[in-house]
Amino acid sequence: MIRTAAVIAAVALTLAGCVAKENASDQRGGSDFSPASTEPSSDSAEPSAEPSASGGGAATSGDCKFKADQSGKQPAVGLPPDEGPATATTLTLTTSAGAIAIKLDAAKAPCTVQSMVFLASKGFFNNTVCHRLTTSAALKVLQCGDPEGTGTGGPGYVVPDELPKDLPAAPAGNGTVIYQRGVAAMANAGPGTTGSQFFLVYGDSTLTPDYNVFGTIDTTGLATLDQIAAGGVTPGQNGAEDGAPTTPVTITSATAA
Asked: Which of 72, 112, 121, 151 could join 212 via S-S bond, C-beta 3.0 to 4.6 A?
């Protein structure tokens, strides 16, 4: 999930549906995000991910303290074990468009990796759609991980914030950074709302550093993403460059090893 950049110039795009709806529903894991403004401003962009540049902010081993979200519902698949970083090093998404393998970075985002590996082991991502594709100059991502396919769903629990500290600064300034091509990061609707939705960056994107970076996409995966992006976007409420992929993308299975 990536949250919305509040009143941030014309390039702002919500990443997972209406902001108001997100802030209300993301108590259960919804996600939203938008590219930061490319124009100087005194306002900082609200939320809206390459990788070796991601930095600290990670919880220590065994200190994830996963908890149910505020929806009042019990997590559908339970809570991840709170026993430290997962031992898996790769998360492979088998999709209708091709394979996407992500090299996991448990050193920088142990709780996020623990959660993603746990969800994959439960079949949580199986037969879910990647509901959002953005193709603007400032934001080039594919967003997936919502069991409802609407941009408002989640696992029923909250993943701790493990925000990157050393992504390269963006020319736009205002505290924005570049989530470089190849980054895999979590979407959210604000602090303390990370769930299961994630975004895959196929082109350098300007955002605020508010999204947990949990890994790096392999070369084959990037080729798959390029193919998806080349297929185009079905325009949504956020404009012609933000909507569902024209060619539907379904994650048929997700496995961690």
From this structure: 112
| 10: Cβ contacts below 8 Å, ≥ 6 apart | none
Burial class from Cβ neighbours inside 10 Å (0-12, 13-18, 19+) for residue 98 reads middle
For the chain, give the DSSP string: -----TT-TTT---SSS-HHHHHHHGGGS-----PPPSS--SSPPP----GGG----PPPTT----EE-TTSSPPTT-----SSS-S--EEEEEETTEEEEEEE-TTT-HHHHHHHHHHHHTTTTTTEE--EEE-SSS-EEEEE--TTSSS----SEEBPP---S-PPBPTT-TT-EEE-TTEEEE--SSTT-B-S-EEEEEE-EEE-S-S-EEEEE-HHHHHHHHHHHHT-EEEETTEEEEEEESS--EEEEEEE-
| Superfamily, domain 19-55+85-256 | Cyclophilin-like (2.40.100.10)
